[in-house]
Design goal:
By secondary structure, the chain is α/β, with parallel strands linked by helices. It folds into 3 domains: 184 residues, 3-Layer(aba) Sandwich (Rossmann fold), CATH 3.40.50; 40 residues; 56 residues, Arc Repressor Mutant, subunit A (Orthogonal Bundle). The protein has 13 helices and 10 strands. The strands form 3 sheets. A 6-stranded mixed sheet has the order 2-1-5-6-10-9, with helices on both faces. Helix 4 links the parallel strand 7 and strand 8. Helix 1 packs parallel to helix 5, helix 5 runs antiparallel to helix 6 and helix 10 packs across helix 13. It is globular.
Length: 325
């Protein structure tokens, strides 16, 4: 039996199959949305579709048969494009027309790596932002001047269109979708089964000098442990630098090298992750949550929460707070 209350009807995620399908990106989508987990129950219906409804050849000589047709997709679905076959080739007119119709009808589009290409060609991202693999950034900037290319972000969420960086960032964006649909508690369970961090921020750098999990031998590691346990306290750059016996300039550089974020941004990110847990799992009022997180005022907490999650703490709690079935 599921340990957490979930909607009676599962949400449907459809992966687009295309010639020479990128198998790693596709597998990320299938792993997150295609497997039922006993502790959660059936929260997603997973399907595949092809442009012409025919079997497609994948990388390395395999084939995949789509499970539904384009006509069966509705505006309630989420369509994921896991990579793309060729950035320099014209996109099938049928697919372009479908993407526009699907998005206009309310459908959500998610892309991984070069999968942003057909969406960019459709014009749906004109005047908006896009994330893709850093190696494709120059190509997108040259061919799509109406789009703001964010080569330094893991993913960019525009609401109805979510784009992500290369390969492994596909897992990050898929977990982001789970979190938007069902909350951080359920997303964390999925992440735990995948043995990956439950949340890497969309604005985190695509590539950093060290892995996200900082080795114990790193000079920053003890400080991170301390900060995590005392996230409610005020931590100045000067104090943190002194703790690590560095100049402030060297400390900021080393910290970002180790975590991918500047110190203050990292602390805010940790507080926001804890905020989701507090809002989901207890009935503390918003003022008490802000105080527990170490914010000087409720106004500051609301500001950072809205800036990060595009909603208010109260609205988030109303949607995602865990209640007994």
């Amino acid at each position: 039996m599921p340990k957490f209350p979930v909607p009676k009807s599962a949400k449907r995620v459809v992966a687009l199959l295309y010639p020479n399908l990128c198998l790693f990106e596709f597998s990320c989508v299938a792993e997150v949305f295609g497997l039922d987990r006993p502790e959660l129950g059936h929260i997603y219906d997973f399907a595949t579709v092809a442009i012409d409804d025919r079997t497609v050849k994948t990388q390395f000589g395999g084939t995949l048969q789509p499970s539904i047709t384009l006509d069966e997709i509705t505006g309630k679905d989420t369509l994921v494009i896991p990579g793309w076959c060729a950035l320099h080739e014209k996109v099938n007119a049928t697919l372009i027309a479908f993407l526009i119709k699907f998005n206009t009808s309310g459908g959500r589009i998610v892309t991984i790596c070069s999968g942003a290409y057909p969406v960019a060609c459709s014009g749906l991202l004109d005047g908006r932002a896009l994330s893709t693999h850093w190696r494709y950034a120059a190509f997108f900037e040259e061919h799509f001047p109406a789009i703001s290319i964010c080569a330094d972000k893991l993913y960019v969420d525009c609401g109805d269109v979510i784009t992500s960086a290369g390969s492994a960032a596909g897992l990050d964006v898929c977990l982001h979708v789970v979190r938007k649909d069902y909350g951080s508690k359920i997303a964390n369970i999925v992440a735990r089964r995948l043995v990956i961090p439950p949340q890497r921020e969309g604005n985190q750098a695509q590539f950093i000098d060290m892995p996200i999990t900082v080795k114990k031998s790193n000079v920053i590691a003890p400080l991170l442990d301390y900060l995590s346990k005392n996230i409610h306290l005020t931590h100045t750059i000067a104090e943190m630098a002194q703790t690590t016996n560095m100049s402030e300039r060297s400390f900021i550089r080393k910290f970002k090298s180790a975590t991918g974020l500047p110190p203050k941004a990292w602390i805010i990110g940790q507080r926001m992750s804890l905020a989701l847990q507090l809002l989901e799992e207890n009935d503390l009022n918003i003022e008490a949550v802000a105080e527990k997180l170490g914010f000087e005022s409720t106004t500051a907490f609301r500001h950072h929460f809205r800036e990060k999650f595009k909603t208010t703490p109260s609205s988030f709690r109303e949607k995602f707070q865990l209640r007994s079935p």
